[in-house]
From TrEMBL:
Residues 274-575 form the ABC transporter domain. This is ABC-type multidrug transport system, ATPase and permease component. Its main location: membrane. It comes from Glycomyces sambucus. Pfam families: ABC_membrane, ABC_tran. It is found in: Cell membrane.
Length: 578
């Protein structure tokens, strides 16, 4: 079990921006090199698996050697002692070969799981480092397919390396043994294997191309299925379920056609794997029979030649299957490489200490400033531009934003995200108990207060076990308004110095919204809170309102001041009230 120890991985990106290699143990950026990197991380395990596989499969063709002694030295000479000796030796060799196969298989499984665990860690750490950038740079289908199919296929590609090595040793062993028996028989085997290799090469290239197309379609349809499931309630509400179902059906049919195209070269490979040994067996027996008739071979040698060639059946069959798995693994490794080489935001060259508590946040691009201790409402008809400003303040995009007198980009990201929280209205809710979903990292002692501030007590009471009730992924059994209040409760429980909320009450009724506005203002007293909203309830309760047009703050003041002085603001708020 020591082969299954948890591997340690570098957190560095595989390649620097200038193309140079970072950490020397970081995974390579190309598919074949990634497979080789995964296979070579635990060298002791890799060598053990390869050696035992070579001995196990390489010893199979040797077993017929004992038939030569049994036939020629025992049966022909009627020497029962020699017959018993050679027969017993063949039985012992068979047991040894079987034992080696068991050991080789166990080591190969350890090797496969080691590679699978390493790939999973690499992908998980990359996703964690990408953070909120993940949704901008990769589709849901691409990420899900890596975890659902690619990691498994890579592990099976690594699993195929040891039997591939063993099969090659077996082929060489058969050729050498037949050469010792007859030069003509040995040449027959090597020429036959060479011809099979020439035929197999183009088939493997076509298989790889079609596997890549199939994998692309798997990612597309996985992403579409995820979109449909996450938006099913909305699709049904607007009558779009049938349209998206039809689209999914078309994608599914295209995927099926791509699968059929993969099956054609795979069928050729299977035919070669099954047919080649049979053809070689027939040719070898024909040649051996003629040599026995001519007196060049003994009957025992002919029987051994038959046994040697018959021993090719298993290695060739396995070799074809392993080759197919390795091709699948190469395609999967290409997708993992795409994930691993997704650009990340650069870490600050010099991490600076954060500002004192209560420092203001300022975004020069929009002119938005969130002062310590205030409730700020940010009103705009273009809510996406306000969301971008919030992302800049939270350090999720490159910008010149500042936290106090320190550039946001120069702060330690963990410290920044602990002190400044950007809470989106559709933020992800993970599966688990309701209490755990609200507490998140370190808000366990603030759960009940946060539930009250978010006016979510009725949500807790509606569940069978209250805060201990289990929620499924994304809490899809709850309504949109209930989920939104849970997200708000989670943000309040985190208790950051600056909380940036984007449309936090867009899915609740006005009475619930009024309670949330008052309770949140009380719960966040003395802490900075910015709310992107056009709701008069928030605007009227805010200490200050920032009016944004075209992504720029054009005016600040109280709700009543802006309504009196700016017609555009008044029109925006009037539409909301209407």
């Amino acid at each position: 079990m020591r082969f299954l120890r948890a591997p340690e991985f570098p957190l560095a990106d595989p390649l620097r921006k200038d193309g140079s290699r970072g950490d020397p143990t970081a995974p390579p950026a190309s598919p074949w090199r990634l497979l080789a990197w995964l296979a070579s991380r635990n060298k002791g395990l890799a060598i053990s698996a390869l050696v035992t596989s070579g001995l196990a499969l390489g010893s199979l063709p040797v077993l017929p050697y004992f038939l030569t002694g049994a036939v020629d030295g025992g049966l022909r000479e009627r020497d029962w002692g020699a017959l018993a000796f050679w027969s017993g030796a063949m039985v012992v060799a068979g047991f040894l070969s079987a034992g080696l196969i068991v050991v080789s298989h166990r080591l190969t499984v350890y090797w496969r799981m080691d590679a699978s665990y390493r790939t999973l860690q690499l992908a998980t750490r990359k996703v964690n480092r990408l953070g909120d950038d993940l949704r901008r740079r990769l589709t849901t289908g691409e990420v899900v397919s890596v975890g659902a199919t690619d990691i498994n296929r890579i592990s099976w590609a690594i699993d195929s390396l040891s039997p591939t090595a063993g099969c090659l040793v077996g082929l060489i062993a058969v050729g050498v043994l037949l050469f010792n028996t007859s030069v003509g028989l040995g040449l027959t085997i090597f020429i036959g294997v060479f011809i099979v290799g020439l035929i197999t090469g183009p088939v493997l290239n076509k298989l790889q191309d079609r596997q890549e197309d199939y994998r692309e379609r798997v990612g597309d349809i996985t992403g579409r299925a995820s979109d449909i499931v996450s938006g099913l309630r909305v699709l049904r509400g607007i009558g779009g379920e049938a349209r998206f179902t039809a689209s999914y059906r078309r994608d599914s049919e295209a995927l099926r056609e791509a699968g059929y195209k993969v099956a054609a070269p795979q069928a050729w490979l299977n035919a070669l794997g099954e047919g080649t040994p049979a053809i070689l067996l027939g040719v070898v027996i024909w040649i051996a029979a003629r040599q026995v008739a001519a007196g060049d071979l003994t009957p025992g040698q002919m029987v051994a030649a038959f046994g040697y060639t018959s021993a090719l059946l298993l290695p060739v069959h396995w070799l074809i299957g392993c080759t197919y798995r390795i091709i699948e693994g190469r395609v999967a490794a290409g997708k993992v490489c795409e994930l691993l080489n997704t650009p990340e935001r650069e870490a600050p060259a010099e991490v600076r200490p954060g500002p004192a508590a209560g420092a203001e946040l300022h975004d020069p691009e929009s002119g938005l400033t969130v002062e310590g201790g205030e409730l700020l409402a940010v009103a705009s008809a273009e809510s996406d531009l306000v969301a971008r400003a919030f992302d800049r303040l939270g350090g999720y995009t490159e910008s010149e934003a500042r936290f106090g007198d320190v550039p946001v980009a120069a702060l330690d990201r963990d410290e920044l995200h602990r002190r400044v929280l950007v809470a989106d209205h559709d933020a992800y809710l993970f599966a688990g108990t309701l209490a755990a979903a609200i507490a998140a990292r370190d808000g366990a002692d603030r759960v009940e207060a946060a539930v009250a501030a978010a006016s979510a007590a009725d949500v807790v009471e509606s569940l069978p076990d209250g805060l201990d009730s289990a929620l499924d992924n994304q809490a899809r059994t709850l309504s949109g308004g209930q989920r939104q209040r849970l997200r708000l409760a989670r943000a309040i429980a985190a208790a950051p110095e600056a909380l940036l909320l984007h449309e936090p009450t867009s899915a609740v009724d006005s009475h619930t919204e009024a309670r949330i506005v008052d309770r949140l203002a009380e719960a966040r007293a003395g802490l900075a809170t910015a709310v992107a909203t056009t709701s008069p309830l928030w605007l009227g309760r805010a200490d200050r309102v920032a009016f944004v047009q075209g992504g720029k703050v054009i005016a600040t003041g109280t709700h009543h001041e802006l309504a009196a002085e700016h017609p555009d603001y008044r029109a925006l708020v009037s539409r909301e009230e209407a």
